[in-house]
Design a protein that fits this description.
The chain is of the alpha/beta class. The chain contains nine helices and 13 strands. Helix 1 crosses helix 8, helix 1 crosses helix 9 and helix 6 crosses helix 7. Glutamic acid binds next to loops.
């Protein structure tokens, strides 16, 4: 039996510079791909302009380069894919697999926080667009965490694929892009576990081969609070990548090579990489944001 060649990816949103938390996702996905002899792609998730910071995409790419994390092939920019997203949505609307919804956030709160599908048959011609969620995936196998489940009610929700402000939803874009680029495994932070069920629902409904999944522990400054661009996690230092790379390897439970260049450090880290050594936890507290 032959398997498709491994294709992994890192998909940062340009809402700020690369910090220690996002370095872990970048490094973890890179090591996994390279240790499988696979490709590692980078995609800039720039379809949410209100959350973008000017210059952040280029800054992230320069940081990846400085850290020796060189990607394969062309970069993908989601902002250049909006025609494909819209064509998909038009098709879903035409086939009755998606519909407009005009419910407010307040109304959804009154439904208990999970949308109950009430606009499905109302024939609205504007508003947010929701998928008729037929696949309703509520569990999947994670390469690190094993069997993962989410509540049925969450899994069954007709979730939004295009927002009422006209922006394409992350769930739709990520599935179309992962399918388009033939991603065979998604390695990213454990904050996206629920998103993976949504995404699996779309993979199934669209008839695409779904990737495998591996969710890495999140670096948290406090319980329940991941380091993020929004809480001003300190950017990693492009001028001095080795300390942050070594700290990220330690965080992932990997041995720390005694190397003095990023190239030799990464080559050794790829050779040593072991999924079994990664802590099987959703969060790990670290001292600071740097
Ligand atoms: N763009 C998302 C983020 O920066 C990650 C998406 C993904 O890996 O699927 O949090």
């Amino acid at each position: 039996m032959s398997y498709p060649p491994y294709i992994g990816r890192f998909a940062p949103s340009p809402s700020g510079s690369l910090h220690f938390g996002s370095l872990i996702a970048a490094l973890g996905s890179y090591l996994r791909a390279r240790s499988q002899g696979g490709q590692w792609l980078v995609r800039i998730e720039d379809i949410d302009p209100p959350r973008e910071v000017p210059g952040a995409a280029d800054d992230i790419l320069r940081t990846l380069d400085a850290f020796g994390l060189h990607w394969d092939g062309e970069l993908m920019y989601q902002s250049r894919r909006t025609e494909a997203y819209q064509a998909k949505i038009d098709g879903l609307l035409a086939s009755g697999e998606a519909y407009f919804c005009q419910c407010s956030r307040k109304q959804i709160q009154a439904m208990g926080g999970v949308y109950d599908g009430r606009c499905r048959h109302l024939g609205h011609q504007s508003g947010a667009i929701r998928i008729v969620n037929r696949a309703r995936v509520n569990h999947f196998h994670d390469g690190l965490l094993g069997e993962v489940t989410v509540p049925e009610s969450f899994a069954a929700e007709d979730f939004i694929i295009k927002r009422s402000d006209g922006l394409y939803a992350y769930q739709l874009a990520v599935v179309m892009d992962d399918a388009e680029t033939g991603i065979t495994e998604v390695v990213r932070g454990a904050d996206l576990i629920e998103a993976s069920c949504r995404q699996l629902s779309l993979f199934n409904q669209f008839g695409h081969q779904a990737p495998a999944w591996m969710h890495l522990p999140l670096a948290c400054a406090e319980v329940g609070f991941k380091l993020s661009k929004q809480n001003h996690a300190t950017p990693v230092d492009k001028a001095n990548p080795l300390p942050a790379l070594k700290a990220a390897l330690a965080f992932l439970g990997q041995p720390i090579p005694d190397a003095h260049s990023v190239e030799s450090l990464l080559a050794q880290a790829v050779a040593d990489f072991s999924v079994d050594s990664i802590p099987r936890r959703r969060e790990i507290l670290i001292d600071s944001g740097g």
